Amino acid sequence: MAKFSELAYLGDLSIYSLDDLKKKLSRWEFKKTAITSEFIDVKFSEKVVVIDIRYTIEGQFVQILREEWKGIAVFDFNDN
Known about the structure:
There is one protein chain. The protein is of the alpha+beta class. Helices cover about 15% and strands about 45% of the residues. It has one domain (about 10-75). The longest helix is centred in the first third of the chain and has 7 residues, at about 20-25.
């Protein structure tokens, strides 16, 4: 039986602040990839999935930038 990513069980990621998602995905690798005066871009990764998410500097969800299912598919949502 195939195992779904923990992301699938969380549903709509926009309801989670950065701190909330860090707690929910505590077993995932976490890295801040960019910080500006307005935004924090972060990367959560585990053995199958990598997801890049933008948050406000206060930690509120803005958008998913990119989601990769290793060896399967890449979805790029970045508006830039």
